[in-house]
Structures are given as C-alpha cells and as structure tokens.
Amino acid sequence: MLGVVFSIIPIAHFVAFGYLYRLFAQGKAQREISLPDWGDWKGMFVDGLKLFLIFFLFGFIPVALMSALVGISPWDSVFVKIPMAPVLFFAVPLPIAALYLYLLNEDFKNCFNFQALLGLMKAGIHAYWVPTIAYIGLLYILPFMYFVGGIIYFYFMGNVFKNLQLRADRG
C-alpha cells in the first residue's frame, strides 16, 4: 500500500519506481518473487531515477513524438490515430528491455544497443504481449494503479528477458 501512496506523490514517486526496478532485478536474477523491504530509501530513490530516465527516453518520447505527428494531421478521423496503437503498445515493454540491457553491467550505453534491443523485443513478443495488454488495460482503467500491476509485470518481464538471454546463450 505504501508504494501506491508514493506513486501518486511527486518526487516520492521515484521511490516507488525504485521498488519496481528492484522487482525487475529480482525477476532478472530469477529469484522467487518476494517484495523488497522499504528500508533503503536513498537506494530506491536512485534506482527510481534510473528507471524514470529509461522510461522517459524509450517510452514517453516516442509516444509524445507520435502524438505530435497525429496531432498535426489535417484530417480529423479515428483512422488517423491508428499509428498510435503500436507506439502505445511498445511504450511499455521497450523501456523494460532497455532496462534489462542497462542491468547487464549498469551502463546506460547498453540501452542504446538497438540491435540487442530489437532482438529482445522480437524474440520475446510471444511471451509478453498478453501481459503487456493486460497491464496497459489496467493503466487505462485505473491509471494510479500502475504500481500494483507493476509489481507483477516488472518481475515477470525481468524473468522473460533473462529466459530469452539464457536460450540465446544455449543455442
């Protein structure tokens, strides 16, 4: 419940992001899911800033650019908004794939390895498309509940991308 409260308070929301970051790292390490302690406020704040930066670059900016392009269209039709669907869909797993690449050796340059990023997205789509649609649906119905759904989604995605890496390493 603390995470939901933090997620709606400006500045404190970075602590909630840090919590999700740690759940993702737990899934990546393929440890059994357990909720992290709330004791390390400074560490969670810093982790939350990292997650926010990655989501800003790989999620918010593409959505904002496509929204601007759709917004300047001279036609007022529902069909003009169709290109937004894939952008909105990938605005959630793409930053998470970038986070996975970042966590390989905690270097932001890894996030911009577009070949690896595309490879993760392409190889894992069969595993994450249903949970992603469910998570996006939750965000549209109850936007302030991103934290509650994120607890499961972030852990799951860490596990999915780690499995993809293990499968690639084997064969």
Helices and strands: which structural class? mainly alpha
Weakly predicted, low-confidence segments: none
Tally the helices. Answer: 7
Major pleated sheet: none
The end-to-end span amounts to 42 Å
Gyration radius from CA atoms, angstroms: 16 Å
SSE arrangement, N to C: HHHHHHH
Strand content: under 5%
**Overall pLDDT:** 89
Give structural notes.
This protein is 74% helix and 0% strand. It has seven helices and no strands. It starts with a helix and ends with a helix.
Brief account:
With 171 residues, the protein is mainly α.
Summarize the SSE layout with pairings.
Layout: H1 2-7, H2 13-28, H3 41-71, H4 84-90, H5 93-105, H6 114-141, H7 146-170
Helix pairs in contact: 2-3, 2-7, 3-4, 3-5, 5-6, 5-7, 6-7
Structural key phrases:
171 residues; mainly alpha; 7 helices; globular
